[in-house]
């Protein structure tokens, strides 16, 4: 539905005090409707996680003229990720922003939101976690943003070096190294994208 990406920045940590720490991204896209969303969050190294996202002005705490925020609570995740780049796909709309009468009501609603988001967006599979994201098959699908970038960069390489590219394992390794440096992605993620694009199993639009 919508994809938002950017650097994770410091917020006022209201979510953390409520037991729901969030990854905050500057909100530039005004087309994204306010509300609570089920989402999938992806890092540049290929890791993906279920998330619940709040877009809006937090009416329980602030008035309607407050700053509009994009806050992603990554489910079952406890790492410090300030300064990292994150890509968040909003997958399903859960509910609108609501002004609650008490913090207790808000926290109860947030627990329900997280449970619903987790049900909509399954966590990273055991297979993908145990293999570092380099196994084959539907359970190890690379993020769409990574597939798009690798596909575009690969096409540019082939267009520039048509007829000169090395073939076989050595050629593949050279291509993986080149794309990894060019795109700032791990070699494992680049290799997985190339495999999936070659098998034509994953839509990239």
UniProtKB/TrEMBL annotation:
Its EC number is 2.7.1.26. The keyword ATP-binding applies. It holds the Pfam family Flavokinase. It comes from the Bacteria. SUPFAM superfamilies: Riboflavin kinase-like (SSF82114). InterPro entries: Riboflavin_kinase (IPR023468), Riboflavin_kinase_bac/euk (IPR015865), Riboflavin_kinase_dom_sf (IPR023465). This is riboflavin kinase. The lineage of its organism: Bacteria, Bacillati, Actinomycetota, Actinomycetes, Micrococcales.
């Amino acid at each position: 539905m919508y994809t938002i990406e950017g650097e994770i920045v410091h917020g006022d940590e209201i979510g953390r005090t409520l037991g729901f720490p969030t990854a905050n991204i500057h909100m530039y896209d005004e087309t994204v409707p306010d509300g609570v969303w089920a989402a999938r969050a992806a890092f540049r190294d290929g890791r993906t996680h279920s998330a619940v996202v709040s877009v809006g002005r937090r009416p329980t705490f602030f008035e309607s003229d407050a700053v509009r925020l994009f806050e992603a609570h990554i489910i079952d995740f406890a790492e410090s990720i300030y300064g990292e780049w994150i890509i968040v796909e909003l997958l399903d709309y859960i509910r609108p922003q609501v002004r609650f009468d008490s913090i207790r009501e808000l926290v109860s609603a947030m627990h329900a939101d997280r449970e619903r988001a987790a049900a909509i967006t399954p966590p990273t599979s055991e297979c993908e976690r145990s293999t570092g994201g380099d196994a084959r098959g539907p359970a190890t699908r690379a993020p769409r943003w990574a597939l798009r970038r690798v596909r575009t960069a690969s096409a540019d390489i082939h267009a520039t070096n048509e007829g000169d590219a090395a073939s076989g394992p050595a050629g593949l390794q050279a291509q993986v190294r080149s794309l990894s440096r060019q795109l700032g992605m791990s070699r494992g993620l680049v290799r997985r994208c190339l495999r999936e694009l070659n098998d034509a199993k994953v839509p990239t639009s």
